Structures are given as C-alpha cells and as structure tokens.
Give the backbone structure.
Amino acid sequence: MPLTRRQFLKILGGSAVGAVIFQACGVPEKELLVQSPAKMPEDLVSGIDNWYATLCKNCKTNEGIVVRVMEGRAKKVEGNIDYPINEGKHTARCEATLQSLYHPDRIQGPMVRVGNRGENKWQEISWEDALNRLSQQITELVSKEQMVLVTNPVNSHEGLVVENFIQKLGVRHIPFETIEDANLLDAFENVFGERLIPEFDIANTNYLLSFGSDLLGTWQSPTRYSKAYGDFRDLHNGRGKFVQIEPRFSMSAANADEWLYVNPGQEGKLALSIAYELINQDLVDSKWESALNINLNSFSPDKVYSEIGLASADKIKEVAKEFGTHGSKSLAIGGGISSAYTNGSFNLSAIYVLNHLVNSVGSEGVIKLNPASPLKNISAESKRAPFSTWQSMTSEIESGKVDILAIRGADPIYSLPDSVGIKNAILGKNANGEFNIPLIVSFANKMDETTAIADLVLPENNPLEDWGSNIPNPGPGYQTIGFQQPVVRPFFENRGVNLGTKNFIEILLWLSNDLGVELDVEGETVIDILKNSARELFTKNRGSVKSSTFDGFWNGLLQRGGWWDTESKHEGQIDANPTIPSYSESQFSQSGTNESFHLIPFETPSIMDGRLADLPWMQATPDPISTAVWDTWIEINLNKATEMDIKEGDILKITAVDSKLSIEGVAYPNPATPPNVVGIPIGQGRSEGTRYSKNRGANILSILSTMKDTKTGALAWGSTKIDIEKTGRWRRLPKFEGSKAETSVDEHHTIIQLTNLSEASH
C-alpha cells in the first residue's frame, strides 16, 4: 500500500526507536565486546551506562565504533574491537562525531530561501510543505533528465536506493568527491580486472614500495594500514623495509626507511624502469612478463634516471633488486599525488603491474582481491563521476538543460576550481531574467558554500541518530558488511514530525511513492530494507553471527556492528592480461617565471578535504608534520625560503600561472620540502560554513588548473604550477612545535631578563 505524506512523516519521526544491545545467540560470549565498563565513569548521575555498536561516517572507510550512552546522551566513542576494518583502533575523527551530533550550528528543520539566491536568508517551513514543493517541481519537469542528483560516492543499501531512484525516475546522477579516485579505480580495472580496491596485506609484507600514497596519513584506510604497519615493523618477525616515493615529505615519508624524491608526474616511468630491471636481473615470474602490453626497452634505468629526478641509475637498480628478491612478499602500491597528473591512470597502472611481475597477487600474495557482496543487488562499489562531467555540466546549466539540482554529501561550489565556473553558472540568469536552474535542493545538516546558494534545504539526521550500512571498500579480503544503528534519539525530534531532521534514503523512498514510481527495494523504511537483507544473511548460516532465530540474528548484528565471513574468498581468475595505458608525459600548467613551483595540495589527517573543518576538535588537532592548526600554511624548502627572504609567518601570495587566480597563506619553511615544490593543505578557506570553519585560512582548491587525465577525465589536481610573492605582512603560524621562544640563561642557568633599547634608555 502506498504511503501517504502523513504516514511517511509519522514513520520518519519515529524511525530511530532507540538502539538496544541484545545477547547474540550463537556467538561465543568472549567475543561480545560491547558491554558496560566495570567501573562507572565519574560523570554518571543515575541510570544505565550502555555501549552501542555502529559506524563512523566522518571518513571514507566508515570504521566500526562503539558509543557510550548515558541517560540518552552519547558521551564517548571508541573503536569496535570486533569490526574487521579497524579492529578496535580509531582516530580523533571518530571521536569528533560527538561534536557533529551536538554542533550548535546544526540546521534544525527544513528551510526555504526568502532572499535573493546566495544571500543566505531563510525561513523555516514544515516537512510537509518542503516535500510538497519538491514533489511538485519534479512532476512539472518536461523531462526527468532535467533533474540532476549529486551525491557523495555511495554503496551498500544507500547505493541500492539511489541507483533505483535515478533509474526508475530517469534522473541523472553525479557521484562527487573532492579528491577523486577515478584514476585509482581505472588502474585496478586495468591491472586486476575489477574496480574494487584490494586488501593490501601490509602486515605480512617484507618489502613495501609506496608511490605517493600516504597510507599512514590520509590515503584510503589509514587506521587499518597504520595497525598493519605496526605488525610490519614487529622486530620479532623481522623488520620489513619501507620505501616511500613522493615529491612531498608526508607522514608516510617521515616513517619510511628511505624516502625517494622523484619529479612530479614521473612515478609511472620509474615503475616501468623498475619493471625493466626486474626482467634484466631475472627476478620476474615469466608468465606475467609475457603478458605485459608495453615495450620496456625505452625505460631502462640508464635512459630515464635523470628525467625521473635521480642522481644516477644505481638507485633504480637497487630498488628493483630488493623488490624482486623479496618476491611474493613484496608490495607496490600507488595513489595520492602519483594519481594526480594528466598521466595519473598510466602512473598507477604501471605501479600496480609490479605486483604481478613478482607474483604477489592472490591468495598467497600480499594483494588480495576482495570478494563480491554477500547480498544480492547490494554492491560494494561506489561509482564516481570524473571531473570532465562537471565541465560539461557548467555549459548544460548555462543553456538551461538543468531544472532541478539536488545535492547531498557534496559541496561542488567549494571543491571545484573557480575557473570551472560552476558557481557563476548556478547563480546566472537567462535572457528572460530567470535563474539558469529554477530549483536547487540541498540535503545538508550544516551550512556550506553549496547549501548557501540553495532554494530549499532538507536537513539529514546525524549518523549517530540514524540507520544505515556500509560495505567497506577497501575491504579486509573477505565479505564484510557493517550495520549502522541509531545510538540516541534524533536531537530535534522534540520539535515534532514536521520539523527536525530526516533520513535521506527515506525521503527518496517517499518521493518515489508520491510520484507513483515503484522502486525495486523491499521495505518502506531504511530499517525495513536492512532487516530484509539481514534475513538473507541469516539464511546463509555462516559468518560472524549465527542464531536459531532471526530475532537473535538481528540482535547479534546490532551488537557486533555488522556481519563478516573470514572464510569467504574472491572468486574468479585474476586478470591474466594486465593493461597499461599508452605512455604520455605529464603536462603542467604553463610556467610563469623561473621561480614557478609545482603545487602539491594535500589532505591533513584532521580536517581531511574540508569535510571536518566545522569541528573544533579537528581544527585543533595538529598536523603531524608541521604541528600547525586552524590555518592554511605553505610548506616551502628552507634554503629556497632563505634565498627568497621568506621567514615563518610571512604571508605569501600564491598565484596559479595559467588562471592567475590567487590565495594567501602563512609561510612554513621546512628543510624536508624539495626545492621545486610547495605543499599546501586542503580544507580551509570557506566563505560559508559554521562558526568554526567560516572565513578561516584559504581554499587551495579554488585556484587549481582544470587540466585532466588524458584517459579518465579525472581532475589532474597535481598539475598546477604557481608563483610566490611576499605581501609584506606577517602573522604567527598557530602550531605546537617551536611556538615559544627559548628563555635566555647565563652559564649558571640564571634567567636573563631581556630588554629592548627603549626600555634600557629609561
């Protein structure tokens, strides 16, 4: 029976009925790690202290967490020791989930624009009114393709509903991420035959060769990789060797046995030079040598070492010998900045082929392909749209081909380079004086650049208030699905069902129903859909939770935080014909002056790509290299800075040599920064946001060149060259290291009070 709007609102208002932890039937008692502490915390007044298992949504990997709840309020977050991805470890990002739940600037109900678009003037309306406005606008579309839905990359049950929604209604979908993985997924498809991220068994690797992937910082699954790195360094098993190849001194470079600088964009050439030498030294599995689709003769170390940026060919030969000698216990990974050039797909494909050459891929190797989802119609893959999509979208908006733009979990106005012109296109008007896009809808619970120019805001529940799921990608090498349950009641539910926040997926379900479109999903609410999938898992009678009854099984899922089967393996053949895209030199924006630098944007472990900039805990978490907080700093080589008369704290103007767009930041001279590169963190510089993120630092993304990968169309975010000039202004860089001057003492360690000349004259 179709739901009415009133029934829908009633369901949404009571969908988070309070999470309850139950005894999981069939699971050994010793494995149940979600329990009350033996000693009550000091802040307990009365009532029961409970721990609830759920998922962290503050980073891409959706780590398993347990949340301490007292008297209906979430108090503490810890890692779920039972969950395969993080095995009890967690980051400050997970703990900061509490700040997102209780954030003072959360949007408390639906809002409609009352001023001019972009003025950030709003009036609160009811959910019934808001949903009616959206449904009516969709109904009036001449073609449903005139509606574009932009989301963060989604998979699992969320992906199922989104995919059904866009297919059944015929709307367009653009999955968006700030630092996109399009090149990485393309490389996996080229080399391994599928677009899922493999499990890198770092713990059992003897030789780790990383090209640009800051696996100990922000790349993919840093919590999991950091734990594995600890096992990799276990002296009892023999300390493995770690070589980091990267143009910036990252967290991984700082922890490596050897950090090799290569010229930006030359990582793939270096990988093929290593491949050439592996064959030359007879260290290659012959079946894979014959499978390569590229002639390696032009990549011999003696021919390419100077182009790569090395002093001699000996280093390439040395790395190749070490990598090949360890054979199937060697691991080569690539990502991050090595994927960020116009030849990024080529770079990564060349890097990952090295694993085939030494036979380290497969069940006995250190690269394990993840099996397919254990559930029918539920995928682990999260689709991505390349940057080129947004370039064409700008022209479509300007020509009036988009009537409704709905955005969830993405902020393209902030994240795309200004020269793309997406903001101007959205705010622009046609010849009749009407907006290019009649309706912009934002599903957001806090203000950001894109939400600020919307016409209708539909706020989502906080993850700690909501149901959901996630199939980890990268997975642990076996079938895993995490279940997210609400640990507290929705913060604004006391405002009634017509105000407060709602579940994004259930809004899509209602819209489909109201428009007379039946989605191929079983259930009218998220919890219905999750329970139906749980029944499918229940019938398999395998994995981490078993029970004689479905109720016991469902309770066990919630208590453990999900389901996994360590015995499940990847099925099918490893791609025997890996393909490396045609070689091409990386292109960069045109040089401005002789002093032009390669710009290396990077994510910090705290605010990442800016998604956590609204959380003061994260703003105050020091960067592991610079120890800087709350600002945008500019990493520049110390000797180069001295040559240019630049000191720490000098405010520098950074200008892209092609677009002439510029930002300002605080100088941070660093002896580990190579002379020809400059590193600048991503995530600050918001013109719209919360009280903790707005008007702080600078947005480096705004000045990036619009160059693309020649194969995938992904943004070549590492291909921008910049010029630097001093502004003549100075401010202290907020950081922990060296923030206080040393007190002067004499030879007896007596403190000497220093005075300036004017004080001395008096």
About this structure: The first strand starts at residue 49 and ends at 55. The CA atoms of residues 103 and 702 lie 27 Å apart. The chain has 23 helices and 25 strands. Residues 8-46, 754-762 have pLDDT under 50 and may be disordered.
